Amino acid sequence: MQKLLLYLILLNYWLLYLYAAHISLLPAGLAVLVSLLCIAYNLLLCRLTVRRARRQTDGYIVYPVLIGAVLFCSLMLYVFIIRG
Fold first, then answer.
1. 18-62 pLDDT per residue, tens
2. I want to staple 30 with a disulfide (CB 3.0 to 4.6 A). Which of 3, 4, 26, 81 is the partner?
3. What is the pTM of this model?
4. Looking at the predicted structure, is the pLDDT value of residue 1 above 80?
5. Other Cβ atoms closer than 10 A to 26
6. Measured CA distances, 29 to 15, 24, 32, 51 (Å)
7. Which of 49, 47, 39, 48 is nearest to 69 (CA)?
């Protein structure tokens, strides 16, 4: 189970890269849909991580997930608000 969680975290960063590379090429409706799916994936990953990292020694798992979620939020803020 621990390895699966680590692979899901790596998948999160791969999705972040793909989102950053291709979001400007998508039409507005599809970009919103992809953004909502990324938000849902991050929320599920955060919930799974908190459930899995109940022990004191598993706290290191929380930080990459939190950093990935903050990067996704920052990128979405840039794409939809700042860049317009």
1. 999 999 899 989 999 999 999 999 999 999 998 887 776 777 888
2. 26
3. 0.87
4. no
5. 15
6. 19, 12, 5, 33
7. 39
